[in-house]
Design goal:
- This protein is an alpha/beta fold.
- The chain contains three helices and four strands.
- It has a four-stranded mixed beta sheet, with helices on both faces.
- α2 links the parallel β3 and β4.
- α1 runs parallel beside α2.
- The model has no long low-confidence stretch (mean pLDDT 95).
């Protein structure tokens, strides 16, 4: 799992690339949380899933955990560019009611 981030106009952009599963989630969680902690003045966070090649329930837990962390900081979270497979999983799990897709 590769994670890249940047901040532009008050938006924290988090791009995930690879698989979000039980093997990659803990490292991805630590790295993403560090980037969130470094960006407390952002108003929004866009989590880009375009290059996610696989996601299981661990990936859903990862997203919910980042949503909660961002919410505690007053940062709204959004999912952007989910590929077809991720979109289907997130729709079935009802994640978009919590983290909107833009």
């Amino acid at each position: 799992m590769k994670i890249s981030t940047f901040v532009e106009k008050g938006i924290l952009h988090i791009s995930l690339d690879g698989e979000i599963d039980e093997y990659s989630a803990s490292d991805a969680r630590r790295e993403t949380d560090r980037k969130i902690d470094e960006s407390p003045t952002c108003e929004k966070a866009y989590i880009d899933l375009q290059n996610v090649t696989f996601m299981d329930s661990t990936g859903i837990g990862f997203l919910i955990g980042r949503y909660k962390k961002l919410a505690r900081l007053g940062i709204r979270a959004y999912i952007v560019n989910p590929n077809a497979a991720a979109d289907k999983i997130l729709t079935l799990a009802g994640i978009y009611t919590l983290i909107p897709k833009v």
